[in-house]
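Morning run. Coffee first, then this:
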Amino acid sequence: MLDRQQLETFATVVQHKHFRRAAAALNISAGAVSQRIKMLEESVGAVLLMREPMVTPTQAGEAIHRYIMAVRLLEDDALQHIKPDRFPPVDFAIAVNADSLATWFEPVAWQLARQHVALEIIVDDQDHTLTALARGDVKGCISTQRQPLVGFVAEFVGGMRYRCVATPEFAELHFAGGLTLPGTLKVAAILFNRKDSLHNSFLASFFRVAVCGYRKHYFPSPTALLNAIFDGLGYGLVPEMQAEPLISAGQLVDLAPGHSLVVDLYWHHWESEPPPAANISQLVMDQARRCLVHDI
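And here it is:
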């Protein structure tokens, strides 16, 4: 039987990524923290933490961290059933890409926030959210990666379709004859941030050749990116859920009619989920089935 005090100490070290900061949070000495971690490692027969260059869990440590998070969820769920108003809400962190949060995932977040949880949403590029799950920072994530981590499941939630758009004035000035390779090298593209690979993928699929060397502006929020396109600073890829009504209203034009980019998304979660986490996974899957592309 694993010692709960040692497990909570280990989880606190993982959370703070530092022994002394964990000690301060627990109101004990750094030596006591080290001793508890050592005893836990001896009891499981494995090294749980890498100390250098920074404190991070090993693969065995990640499994232990998932275990203590699951124990906390089960405990909180039981206490809520006994006395719903007495105990504080359970912490639940999720990693999601900004475009999903701004479109189909936002209603999921609202429903979660209305439940007895203290919700934290960590935003990162869809190609990088899995890192937060691997570190134990979150209990689930939306990712483009189809291969799950050990102890996790990756469920396909659907495809997110992007349209390449610009204002009518920008399109007339720079792409009067349609989207061309020389044209893309002369004007700026609006991207989310340096991790954003969507534009490269779109150009490669449209022109059937890798395109580089074009000018880029970075606006790291879906609203700011869309406003930059509206202001005529460049053209870019926008989720169809946002772009379609604007195209229909004549505020934007599709620079590549009939050619869109679909990004497959997966919901990564624990293989063995306690009921509270399983309910959240079901909520995510239900909303995704209603909003995302499934027949490509």
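The mean pLDDT is 88. Good start to the day.
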